[in-house]
Amino acid sequence: MPKISVVTPSYNQAKYLRRTIDSVLSQKVDLEYIIIDACSTDGSADILREYQSAARVVVEKDNGQSDAIAKGFAMASGDILAWLNSDDMYLPDALRHVVSAYEKGCEFFYGHVFIVDAEDALLRKRVAIPVDFDDLYYGRYIIPQEATFFSRRLYQESGGLDRSFQYAMDYDLWLRMAALHPPARIDQFLSCFRYHHGQKSSTRPDLYDDELQKAREKSGASHPRSLLKSSAHRASLVVRKLFSNVAESGVRTTVADLVNKKRGRLP
What we know:
The protein has one domain: Spore Coat Polysaccharide Biosynthesis Protein SpsA, Chain A (Alpha-Beta Complex). 43% of the residues lie in helices and 20% in strands. It has eleven helices and nine strands.
């Protein structure tokens, strides 16, 4: 059975940390779990000490989230890699689906996500859709990071995480991996993304957008800008996402979710 290495970058998320760790360690697969904590000051250290026999825990200063994740991947020995932030969770048996996809030849794949609140209540379902490089590059589709997995071989061939990115490090990596190997969607809900105040990407959306553009410029040598292609892919993605959400949640729930997203109540 292939081994999965999961890395969790941790910093001052004690409120959610235990639920994240338990969701990983409960998976019935060949698992290596690495937690990189940047010297948290909120009680995370006490929680991490409880798990030192079940996970590899490293506590040291770092240069941000990307640096912590890259450190973890450098230590990892698994065939499959992923990172799970310290406020998110895997669903039961999620990694079993991941192993199955890998054994079928997938090297870069992702699934659906439940978006939950601070108390784990379901806010909405994020249904992932099948995409290719052009959808990512021209349409700027964001594959859900907390439900994404990839082979160690592909991660290394792509050059790994760019530690200079602090917001869109996932999008940058997805672009580079997708240029080498097409991403595949697993039609399963794999994880929970926790929506709460103070999340990095929501506090500085301008910086996130700046890094999206930086990632596209890095990949643009063989894929020049095209307003026509960008418009076509974005329109196609809107329609495909709408139909996927209606198929999963129904028209009424989908419309309500769209309204709440527009009003800033949902991600």
